[in-house]
Amino acid sequence: MLEFAILGLLHESPMHGYELRKRLNALLGAFRAFSYGSLYPTLRRMKAAGWISERVPEETPDAPALTPKRGKVVYQLTAEGKERFQELLAEVGPATSDDEQFGVHFAFFSKTSADVRLRILEGRRRRVEEKREGLRAALARTRERLDRYTLELHEHGLEAVEREVRWLNELIAHERADGAPTAEPHATRRSRGNGDTDAANGQQAPT
Amino acid sequence: MLEFAILGLLHESPMHGYELRKRLNALLGAFRAFSYGSLYPTLRRMKAAGWISERVPEETPDAPALTPKRGKVVYQLTAEGKERFQELLAEVGPATSDDEQFGVHFAFFSKTSADVRLRILEGRRRRVEEKREGLRAALARTRERLDRYTLELHEHGLEAVEREVRWLNELIAHERADGAPTAEPHATRRSRGNGDTDAANGQQAPT
DNA sequence: GTTAGCATGTAAGGAGTTACATGATTTT
DNA sequence: AAAATCATGTAACTCCTTACATGCTAAC
User: Fold this and answer.
1) Does the pLDDT value for residue B26 go beyond 80?
2) What pLDDT, on the 0 to 100 scale, is given for residue A171?
3) Does any strand C atom come closer than 7 Å to the Cβ of A189?
4) Distance (Å, whole) CA B114 – CA B100
């Protein structure tokens, strides 16, 4: 997780730990935050594994050995690191649909190939739909017996999940449209709604 | 967390581990799931701490020592356990606004006193509002530089957070109305909207 | 009489957090 | 030169997961 995120960020440009952490928490803002206590040990491990290397920050040729005393350590990806990142990008396991895993994978979608993107989105959708069905069933089964607050909690959870399914549907439709503008012979009319999600919509124009 | 949830469930009725886990995951459906690997050791700890006790399932007086060989172990709350639960209910620390902590606390709201409920809801709202502001600032700051997907992720996150603020506002208003139908001399008109949350609403009737 | 699901547990370990400790650099 | 913030790191610990191991009980 952390490792993957670090690889992704260093893929864009070399960085030192402190900055890495800030960018990490900005990137994943909605999902996750990491502390130094995990960051630095992870960097160590990754260096030992050969995926990243330290780089002494460019000395201006004039001031050669100024003071890299306990200096900033700038990390950059090695060739192996780049490979590893590609590997992790494409490796869509059963856990890739988990909240956090999905978030991180999604954050690096622009570095992911179109087919893998689609696989991930569909996997996530299935997962979220399962959760939705579970919640619906539980609600239908116990609606009468639940106290006001538990009910409120479950309904709010259900709505959040329904929203996410809609979001994923849009993303998937978009991916399909982008990837095969003239190919797919199966969704000519009906720009929204895919038959599975029931029609409990009612959206309004975005802010 | 687990401990708190167990106390809460056993507060309703005695149960054995297996059932406990099922009810636990049903109760927190949207938030969390626990595995046996954590459940049983936790039960042990709690028993050692004196919060719960095992109860040999009522033998029918006719068949005295039938076969409780490796029988079901039914756990029930002790007096100390009940106290502990009340303590945890009322103890609103800085972490009570965290996603999971909040979810569990909320699930037991019907056993929580009105003033604590309000404190928890307001704490949560503040937390979520902070997150919202962070996301908004980040979006405003970097909107141009972000790739399509990161943008999509952040916007979806922001919307989710905005939804939760609205939800919390409703809950808080409801609590206030319930708790002090005639008392509070400070919210006579304006049944909704609390000045802080900006007016990006636009809700429709619930399902 | 064997598969499926109920029921209880343990050992090893993953993935992080908190709290602490320290030094360098910039701002006031 | 004091305060803030940047920057790196470690030790101890928390909390839970995975994988395994076992036995009982109902259904087919």
Assistant:
1) yes
2) 97
3) no
4) 21
Residue B27, min C-alpha distance to chain A (Å): 8
Residue with tokens 């106390």: B7
Give the residue among A94, A97, A152, A87 at the shortest CA–CA distance from A128: A97
Between helix B99-107 and helix B2-12 the angle, nearest 10°, is 10
User: How many Å from the CA of B83 to C1' of C15?
Assistant: 33
pLDDT in tens, A164-182: 999 999 999 999 997 666 5
pTM: 0.80
Burial class (CB in 10 A: 0-12, 13-18, 19+), B92: middle
Answer for the pair A131, A189: CB distance below 8 angstroms, yes or no. no
Quick: pLDDT tens for A116-154.
Answer: 999 999 999 998 998 898 888 888 888 888 889 989 999
* Burial grade of A10 (CB within 10 A; 0-12, 13-18, 19 or more): buried
**B109: DSSP letter:** G
Residue B4 in 3-state DSSP? helix
Which tokens go with A140?
A: 């239908």
Residue A74 has which token pair? 């700038």
Residue whose entry in the numeric block shows the structure tokens 């869509």: A92
